[in-house]
Every structure is written in C-alpha cells, then in structure tokens.
Amino acid sequence: MSDTSGITFIISRLHVTLKVDIKPNRLVSITPYRCSEENLRLWKGISQAQAMQAQFTLDSDKKASPQQAIHSHFTRKGWTVEEMEN
After folding, report:
1. What backbone torsions phi and psi does residue 79 show, to the nearest 5 degrees?
2. Contact 18/11 with Cβ under 8 angstroms?
3. Domain of 60?
4. Is 2 domain-assigned?
5. Whole-number Å distance between alpha carbons of 48 and 61
6. What per-residue confidence (pLDDT) applies to 40?
7. CA dist., res. 29 & res. 7, Å (int)
8. What residue spans of 13-65 are helical by DSSP H?
9. What was the pLDDT predicted at 21?
10. Which of 36, 44, 54, 74 is placed for a possible disulfide with 79 were both Cys, Cβ 3.0 to 4.6 Å?
C-alpha cells in the first residue's frame, strides 16, 4: 500500500476495539469500533487521547512509513494491531 492512499488499522486491547485511520496527509483519526452504546462516550475520550499520542509518534518518526510508525506505536503499548484492506 502506498502513501497516496489512506491506511486503516483495527487495534484492540482487553475489551476495547478502536479503528485507526491514517489519511494520505499523515493525519491520524481514531474512533470507537464495535463499541456498546453505553460505553461510547468513554471510548470516544480514549480514542481522542490515543489519536493525539499516535499523531505525535507519526510526526516525530519521519523515516518510518506510516504503517510502521503506527504499528510499532500501538504494539509497544500492548495493543493488538491488524491492518484492514481499504
């Protein structure tokens, strides 16, 4: 997959599953994925915090591809990372 298309990952840890989108301009967006309605507000907050951390990692590591940077960022933090086909 090239840098001209978006990249999507599904990350999970314990009972939390989030969708990570990396746009072609290297902006990171994280949203709750397969989340119960009562937990949606909590996971939105967690998603925003994770997106800020992931964006910092992506902006700091210009040598790595977006896939490598995001994959290593979340695996270091204990998340299971799975790339989705777009």
Report:
1. -85, 150
2. yes
3. 7-84
4. no
5. 20
6. 77
7. 10
8. 40-60
9. 92
10. 74
- Which whole-number Å values give the CA distances from 19 to 2, 62, 80, in the listed order? 19, 22, 12
Per DSSP (E only), the strands in the chain are: 7-13, 16-22, 28-32, 80-84
**Segment 18-62, tens digit of pLDDT:** 899 998 888 899 988 877 777 777 788 788 888 899 999 888 888
Q: How many residues would you count in the chain?
A: 86
Q: Which among 40, 56, 12 is positioned nearest to 70, based on CA atoms?
A: 56
Q: In this structure, are strands 28-32 and 80-84 parallel, antiparallel, or unpaired? A: unpaired
**3-class state of residue 15 by DSSP:** coil
Is residue 1 situated within a structural domain? Answer: no
CA torsion 47-82-35-55 (nearest 10°) is 10
In three-state secondary structure terms, 71 is helix
For residue 3, pLDDT over 50 is answered with no
In a domain, 50, yes or no: yes
